[in-house]
Amino acid sequence: MAEYIPPALDWVREQVELYEGSGGTEGTTLRDTGLPCIIVTHRGNKSGSIRKIPLMRVEVDGNYVLVGSYGGRPENPVWVYNLRANPEVEIRDKTAVFKMRVREVTDAQERVGLWNASAKAFPPYNEYQEKTSRRIPVFIAEPV
Predict the structure, then answer these.
(1) CA-to-CA distance for 108 and 69, rounded, in angstroms?
(2) What whole-number distance in Å separates Cα of residue 52 and Cα of residue 30?
(3) How far is CA 51 from the centre of its chain?
(4) What is the CA radius of gyration of the chain?
(5) How far is it, in rounded angstroms, from Cα 142 to Cα 98?
(6) 28-79 tens-digit pLDDT
């Protein structure tokens, strides 16, 4: 069985620990925003280890949109490369856990619709995109 490597950032690790440790009854909103988040369990693209990351909860037609914004930094978050290499994930949405498969959204029309749904759920995504020259990756997680 693959080893679990906790997130390096304290606040991210604490969010995951609270969310997972409570079985999805606590830590379900991102820090002090009050906005709902999910936990995405995925596999590291180099280590093969289990990784977990809290992301904003953007649900569209029973699927989840995962936005690699990284706060508008110039580089992608590491989890983007993990999902590209290993698209099988598990998503915890409060107390429910789903096996899902992700794909990066490349179709322009589909991407615009999913981006708009994401920015409605978490308005800072638009300012993050303005802050960076990279095109922020958008993934859709669909039931297996």
Answers:
(1) 18
(2) 14
(3) 11
(4) 14
(5) 9
(6) 998 888 999 999 999 999 999 999 999 999 999 999 999 999 999 999 999 9
Give, for 144, the enclosing helix (H) or strand (E).
none
d(CA 13, CA 7): 5
Within a domain: residue 3? no
Length of the chain: 144
Question: Does the model's pTM come out above 0.90?
Answer: yes
List the Cα angle 56/116/33 in 5-degree steps: 30
pLDDT 10s digits, 2-42 = 899 999 999 999 999 999 999 999 999 988 889 999 999 99
Give the CATH number of the domain where residue 95 resides. Answer: 2.30.110.10
Domain that holds residue 111: 10-143
CA distance 87 to 65: 13
Q: Which residues are bridge partners to 56 per DSSP? A: 37
Instruction: Judge whether 5 lies within some domain.
Output: no
If phi > 0 it is left, if psi is from -120 to 50 it is alpha, else beta; for residue 32 that is alpha
